[in-house]
Predict the structure.
Amino acid sequence: MVDEKLIDTAWCELYKSVIDYKGQPVGTVAARDPGNDILNYDHCFVRDFAVSALAFLMRGDSEIVRNFLTIMVELQGKVKYMNCLMVGKGLMPGSFKVVKTDGIAQLEADFGEKSIARVSPVDSGLWWLIVLRAYVRATGDTTLIKQPEFQQAIKLILELFLEQNFDMRPTLLVTDGAYMIDRRMGVYGYPFDIQSLLFAALSAARELLTTDDYYHRSITERLTHLSDHLQQYYWLDFARLNTIYRYKVEGYGNQVINAFNIQPSTIKSALIDWLPAEGGYFIGNVSPGRMDFRYFAQGNLLAIISSLATQDQSHKIMTLIEQRWHDLIGQMPVKLCFPALEGHDWEIVTGADPKNSAWSYHNGGNWPFLIWLLAAAAQKSGHPALAIRALESAASRLESECWPEYFDGHYGQLVGKEARRFQTWSVAGFLAAYQLLEQPRHLDLFEF
Ligand code: GLC
């Protein structure tokens, strides 16, 4: 499938990114690019490390993952304050780094208070749950989760995510840039990427709790409501598009079909031409008066893996990818979202962000780290050939271009304008995908 030498080089790069704390490996830095400003790329980002963790676990190297999981428990907010300037109870940081004060190594976490644009790390606790569950599956070691601190950490996350809020909906209300897309991109409200991640993380948490109590029951209930809601309002195939196209508006009461008062005129004609009759996907966002019809890869691929998508839907998502290969995979897998925001939309929605100009970075750029999700989804839905094709097409270019963070262009032809080289999750995503395709049993780490 891929030259062994290239795989060895990739492992070498991944191990070079390991962070040491008190003589122990605890994480990986985001990137090691000498040619670019460091900013916070010397941090260990939780979502980035999740990819490294999976690659390490598949290789049988679980120590670093165990250390990382333990550190996150230490850094998690533990106390409930009525003070918005304190770290919230249950919250896990977006990233951390090791700093030396008077020669003594210490962990310094960022909960969004220092990050560019001060974005909230909504996804960290969710990824932590997924990594913890993968660790248990890979090693069979349940001593960690049986520790009271770990059980408490899981419950604190559940309290943070499941507690009642302003609206009576199973989806999670988040601000813009609260996860992998950590810039303004119109992904505020109820972005599917986060809802899909929440579904996977809750499924993981249900297995990790050692007692069958109130928390366990609350998860089961929420999973049912969440999946019903996402199935009803986010799934889009041609039949459903036609229903929305014929929606009546201004309905009142609980029998209304167009519950969110969506204006059918917001369906762009380009979408009608683009959506193949045999394909389908979960759309990007649904909130009052708004359906964001953009396709986001992370949420859709994760939905296949976590079984949020039914078998039929999984097949339709993979069919969409196959039939729209140039748009959704292109020359470098995998397109983050499609289509890009252009012109006036880009100006208004991103705040005229030049880093997110059309077909660049988060706004329709191609991100190699996503290959592991493609590999897992393809494997699970019985389409491994698609992922092998993607991996093979990416391999040599990734190495010769020194593992860029992302690629630009409608088809991902160009190394991204501001892409870091030696981006750790580009390496880790590639290694995780490779191992998964070589040994499909690894799917067991994160499928439900
Ligand atoms: C960028 C990405 C974010 C990632 C971080 C570190 O900020 O948008 O998703 O976690 O870089 O790689």
Summary: Residues 121 and 208 are 22 Å apart (CA to CA). Residues 214-233 form the longest helix (20 residues).
